[in-house]
Amino acid sequence: MTTLHTNTALPGVSHLMRLVLAALIPGTAVFIYQTGWGGVINLLLAIIAAVVFEAIAVKLRRRSVRTSLEDYSAVVTGWLIALCLPPLLAWWLPVLAAAFAILLAKHLFGGLGQNIFNPAMAGYALLLISYPLDLGLWLNTPEAFNLSLHDSIAIVMNGGVKLQANWDALTGATALDQHRGWLLKTLDNPTPPGNTFGTIGAAHSEWANMAFLVGGIWLWHKRIIQWQIPLAFIVTLLLCTTIGNLINPLQAGPGFHLFGGATMLGAFFIATDPVSAAASNRARLIYAAGAGGLVYLIRTFGAFPDAVAFAILLMNCVVPALDRMDIWLLGRNNEAPKQ
Amino acid sequence: MDTTAHVHDSPSRTPPVIDWPAPERVCIPLRQHQGKAAAVIVTIGQAVNQGQLLTHSDNLFEVPVHASISGIVDTITAQQITLRQTPNGDAQTGSITRQSQQPQGTTITTLYNGWSRSEYLQRIHNAGLVGLGGSCYPVAAKINKLGDKPADTLLINAAECDPSICCDEALLNHSIDEIAMGICLAQHATQAKKTIIGIESDKSALGQLLLTSVLNCCAQQFAAHTELQVVPASYPNGAESLLMSHCVGRTLTPTDIHESQLITFNINTCYSLSQALILGNPCTHRIATIIDSQHNRFNLRLPLGTPISDLIAYYEQRRDCTIVVGGEMMGTEVGLDAVVTKASNCIQLKYVKTQPTVRPCVRCSLCVDACPVSLKPQLLLSAASTANYTNLQTLNLQNCIECTCCDRACPSHIPLAGIFAKSKEQMRQDTHARQMANLAKARYEKRQARLENSKQREFKKLDKKQSNLNQPEKAGQQAKRKLVEEALQRARDKKKNQPPANNNTSPADGQS
């Protein structure tokens, strides 16, 4: 219980957001290591665009620009969008995602605290649906990582890697893509493709997932997030994948799912966004478990290779109902002793 | 619970109680309690002595106020009475002579055994006693609420209500025996079946002393049921409902306490009780903690109505400071013209600090973790912002003790407790308005039913008449008619036999 003397020592929203950004650093470092200059450019583009659109939106709504930029929420949104995107995209794709996230998903709903959907995931989902080809191109050859800054900028400004002559040689499907493709035509190709599995999870994304897990645990240790959402998310995914793997051994096991795609990023940094998550601990467990289950379903049976964005957006829709359920249950508890 | 984080100092470091000299002028607010002001019974220019009644009322909720200095009534307004000291005159010296600490003459037990509850109520009411812990609920009304029955539990609140306040502790150091006698009086007044002294763990030694002192002077029937309860020293354990919950051993809401035979007195109230009932000193002073802008603390015994500007002049170099009354957590800012009242348990002087920017709620639920009475401030806020009284009721807004723990936890710096206080008031008004509307509706419906009923009766009467006319005549009626006709016949015969003297009128009469 608090016995603090002054308000100045208390953590404000901007302090919380800065801690979230700090917790993203290990994962971001791995991300940049794996994507080279392309990842850096994505990060800069998305963050700058998010901040600029935030300023525009706040200006249009006649609020204090300084106050809302100071809370770092726009930076977090841009940063999260960039972490989802493959490198060497056309420059306007990260910008479009940031614009959609800030202007439509956030400020059209009333700004910070009022948005129903996680802005970063809404922006990413827009790109995923509208530009599936661009978003499927992850660099996978060693030459791709060694692109110079100059070359990277040139590619980004000229429509991205898709328009390059040799894009097919540079890029390849992600582990989740391969897994899905393999699941859909199991009869043709009964053996798993060679580089789908890494040491513990999906190839390429396992180290990023580990780094996000570390950052997430630190965030929990700092009491910025509670354990309910990440744990329920991960445990549900673990249970679903284990059962799925036992019933149908061709489905990838829990290791692949937990350390593949954006699982850890989603569990610790996206699903835990307090604004779009449920309010009470009870409802949060349901919310996160639902998201975890949806990730499994969409990854295994759905049309998109990675599912964290859709799973979280879908559960965001359920949050108002969960909050209402909570009040309803509370009302019933209040009445119970009287009867 | 965290006990180390508590701000109270060890007893030796608690500043002693110092008497503040009577000021030149005092402005005594007529309303220093929960309820209406009593009627003024002094006139402008009248000389009054310290302790003299300025207002009077027989209603227990209209607590009278007394002159806190001897002087002349300067002005009277609807809100306050101003007294000023006379420049010369020996009888009206400004300094307050404290009465001897041990009562002389009457032995206490005979004193309080002799009074009935109504006598207690009258004396307490006329002494202007209100809850001095900060609530200012009229003490007599509080006891009267028990009805004729004894109180189940009498809780003596010796826990500070705010981390920055130390006046309760100073009072315990200063006059523990008087508090003990006040407790004995409270036991008699309430006929408490059980008495619990609730104190925080960092003052448990003082609590033991107080318990011993109470056991020394209280009556046999109460001594067996008096005990000490030590609660963890963390805010807001001094709040009535929380302390009561701790001591009774089950969770109680403010409504529960209001509706039960549980009663709480602050030790400051007990002290004033003994002062008033044994020595006959009404409530003219109160002990308050003063915190200056350098965070130094002082415990002063202040005459009620002392302008706080006097304190500023004494403790501060600059006059433009902000005054916060009520403590670090629950305090509210007051204007520079504020005076010391019965509610001023803590007066804090500070220079204006930049207020943190209030941002929208990000639903982080840190406030939910901070709430000591297990409410959900985050959901309450959204219900309050849409004035959704059903949800506010479901979320138990009425249980909020306004301790401001959620304010402290909120990263968006939303003044939650203040919003809840307003919402509570609005909810009360809304409930009242709805009750009134329901009453009016019931009245209207009853009236409509009544009107409808009488109409129906009228119709029935008419129907009956109608049906009577249409009905074939009964035997009795036929006989009657026959008699009438016979009588008429006789009359006609009589007329015929008479000489036709009044020929003009009689046929007409006969016809009519």
Looking at this protein, list some descriptive labels.
heterodimer; A: 339 residues; mainly alpha; 2 domains; two-stranded antiparallel sheet; 1% strand; globular; B: 512 residues; alpha/beta; Rossmann fold; 3 domains; 6-stranded mixed sheet; 4-stranded antiparallel sheet; 18 helices; 14% strand; elongated; disordered N terminus
Brief digest:
The complex is a heterodimer of chains A (339) and B (512). Chain A is mainly alpha-helical.
Radius of gyration of chain B: 35 Å
Count of DSSP strands of chain A: 2
The helical percent of chain B reads 40-55%
Tell me, what is the CATH class of the largest domain in chain B? Alpha Beta
Largest sheet of chain B: 6 strands, mixed
By secondary-structure content and strand pairing, the structural class of chain A works out as mainly alpha
The CATH topology annotation of the largest domain in chain B reads as: Rossmann fold
Q: Report the β-strand fraction of chain A as a percent range.
A: under 5%
Taking all Cα atoms into account, the compactness measure Rg of chain A is 21 Å
Provide mean pLDDT of chain A, rounded. Answer: 83
> How many structural domains can be distinguished in the coordinates of chain B?
3
Oligomeric nature of the chains: heterodimer
What is the percentage of strand-forming residues of chain B?
5-15%
Q: Which structural class do you get from the secondary structure elements of chain B?
A: alpha/beta
> Spatial order of the strands in the main sheet of chain B?
1-13-12-16-14-15
| Terminal Cα span of chain B | 105 Å
Question: In one word, what is the shape of chain A?
Answer: globular
